[in-house]
Task: structure prediction
Amino acid sequence: MKCVVLQNADGAHLGFMLCSPSLDEPSGDCVFIAVPIQAELFDTPAAAVLFERRDAEESSWRVTSREPLSVAVRTPGLAAGLFVELGGSGTGQWGVVSGSNRQVVGRALLPPSAKRGAAADRGRA
Result:
């Protein structure tokens, strides 16, 4: 799982979080690729969150829980953190966190190829 697809709350594509190493590890680095699928999505708060992180270049992530998968992301220069939560089906949510305030921004999901790979890995265990 090196890629997480990020969508807005309505399921419109906004971009990706690309991770190194894989989210199977306890922590690593990531970059955000902001590519809203529709022009009107560029000026939305959800897209702004991704553009800020893209412009900061590299962020760091750490797994805070495995079941369900929960990842905390910190970006240098940005006060608010980001979280990604994915259930066993490879779908979940993402958002921002500042202190005790958490705000869900949209949907998070694994790309189809990552879901197939995760299923195959579970079959080998």
The chain has two helices and eight strands. Strands lie at 3-7, 13-20, 27-34, 59-65, 69-74, 81-86, 91-98, 101-109. Residues 3-124 form one domain. The mean pLDDT is 89.
